[in-house]
Design goal:
2 helices; mainly beta; ten-stranded mixed β-sheet; elongated
């Protein structure tokens, strides 16, 4: 059974792949591989291949490809632009030799199996006929790194001494491999060139299985909220290939990438745009504009092994002014009891929206400006917060994720719930006139502070009965956050409580 993907291409019909808008930005040594990694599980690989071609057609095999290459993305060219190379035909072979594949190639045959020997006993040979190998490269358990048929319902079926058994009776001893067997993924080319002689060609292709993302560690002192931030780029390689001494760039921007099996234009890769101001320390990754995007270039070559996760520090900022904000959002909407209701019936139900959340959120805020030590669009990622204790040691105090955050925006991260703050929210009045489309609803919100110090809390209230509303009574000032949300900023004394009341009038 021979699994091959044949792709016929001609370089004259391909759009040339552009690598950098400024060739001078690349280091002088171009001998190693180069990677441009995108944070949606794909990368562009560029490498060099020594070729010795005759004029006319040449048959060449290349085994340095990844296991997740997109074969139709391959470009092979003379980087000097002197010689013309055309790939008349290309075959991508991913059917690398494995035990499962060799079992499939020997289905219907009787081979030797070695048993014993592991516990000190003498090994012995039994013969078994392979009725079914269990090999299925399209199965969900099949990956370029192997296939475990025991994990499927299609396990191997072997006949030994006239009896059938599931699973192998021992270590299979296969006959000699055929000449066309391959040990690693291989590209087989028929290359046509107009000139004979040696050539160092440039190979470029898109591969899945390589990605990057960002993470942030924020450290606060024992007292106070001015923090230090360290950001890391994490690169993960599951492509099936190792890259030794690679020059690595990280692409940032918004570009289209069609997901496998999707219609063209149906999927959009979301990669944050980062500016040159992102690098406070020039010894870290450097940035350059590229087309409508931005590239980060890691300053040193690095090896990225297969199945390896590697971190590189890309940003440091110190003495960032931040705030710890307490937020009480007491509304706890449970839509399950109203699954088959229309909204008019839900809205007219007295108990809708009266379930109470008692937790008060801890929110950490800081403004992403140059004045505040940052001023860089921050890519989405995980943010971890630490605070130093009285011994000077770092203690973990919460984490969350941030979305892509442009320059001059405020980063808001909820890291947990305050232990010593408790909220309650009670509906005190409700009346509805369904004929006129009117309703009035009143609430009492109480936040209790068990701390030895006063605290400031933002109380969030949602106006969920109708799109048109007015606040007819309120015990404390509020501001309108959006079309259906109001916030009450309040102060609560030490070991005290604060009560807010308001009435909302709805019409529809």
């Amino acid at each position: 059974m021979d699994y091959r993907i044949a792709v016929a291409v001609s370089l004259t019909f391909l759009t040339p792949l552009t690598f950098s808008s400024a060739a001078a930005a690349d280091p002088p040594d171009q001998s190693g591989p180069a990677l441009t990694i995108y944070n949606e599980n794909f990368a562009v690989v560029r490498d060099t291949i020594p070729l010795d071609l005759k004029s006319g057609e040449n048959h060449v095999s290349y085994t340095g490809i990844t296991a997740q290459v997109e074969p139709d993305s391959v470009i092979l060219r003379d980087p000097a632009g002197v010689r013309t190379l055309s790939i008349l035909e290309q075959n991508y072979r991913g059917d690398t030799i494995s035990q499962a594949l060799l079992l499939s190639l020997n289905e219907g045959k009787t081979i030797d199996f070695q048993t014993g020997g592991r516990d000190g006993s003498s090994p012995r040979i039994v013969q078994g006929k392979i009725i079914r190998s269990g090999y299925d490269p399209t199965h969900a358990n099949y990956t370029p790194f192997g296939y475990d048929p025991a994990q499927s319902d299609n396990a191997p079926l072997i006949e030994v001494d006239g009896k059938l058994q599931f699973g192998l009776p021992g270590l299979p001893l296969f006959p000699k491999m055929s000449d066309d067997s391959i040990l690693t993924p291989t590209l087989e080319w028929t290359i046509e060139t107009d000139e004979a002689g040696p050539l160092t060609a440039e190979l470029a292709y898109v591969t899945e299985g390589i990605t990057w993302d960002a993470s942030y560690n924020i450290v606060a002192p024992q007292t106070g909220d001015n923090v230090d931030l360290t950001a890391w780029v994490t690169m993960e390689n599951k492509s099936g290939k190792e890259f030794d001494n690679a020059r690595i760039k990280l692409m940032a921007g918004d570009l289209n990438k069609i997901a496998p099996g999707a219609v063209a234009g149906a999927d959009r890769v979301s990669i944050v745009e980062m500016s040159a101001a992102a690098m406070p320390r020039p010894t870290l990754a450097t940035q350059q504009d590229f087309d409508e995007y931005h590239l980060y270039t890691l300053p040193n070559t690095t090896s990225l092994r297969n199945r390896e996760t590697k971190q590189v520090e890309f940003l440091q900022a110190h003495n960032i002014i931040s705030k710890e904000v307490f937020v009480y959002d007491g509304l706890k909407l449970d839509s399950n009891p109203y699954d088959n209701w229309n909204f008019d019936n839900i809205r007219n139900t007295r108990d809708y929206g009266t379930d109470c959340n008692t937790k008060v959120d801890i929110e950490r805020d800081f403004v992403n400006t140059t004045k505040n030590g940052l001023g860089v669009p921050l890519p989405a990622g995980k943010v971890r917060f630490y605070r130093r204790d009285s011994d000077g040691q770092l203690e973990f105090i919460g984490e969350n994720k941030i979305d892509h955050t442009p320059q001059d925006e405020t980063v808001k991260v909820i890291t947990g719930n305050a232990f010593d703050l408790v909220g309650s929210r009670t509906q005190t009045e409700y009346s509805v006139n369904t004929d006129r489309g009117l309703a009035d609803e009143s609430f009492s919100i109480v936040v209790t502070n068990h701390k030895k110090t006063p605290v400031a809390v933002t109380v969030v209230e949602h106006l969920y009965r109708a799109a048109q509303w007015t606040i007819t009574k309120n015990s404390d000032p509020y501001f309108k956050k959006d079309s259906s949300t109001i916030n009450f900023p309040i102060s609560i004394p030490a070991r005290g409580s604060k009560t807010i009341t308001y009435t909302a009038h709805y019409n529809w």
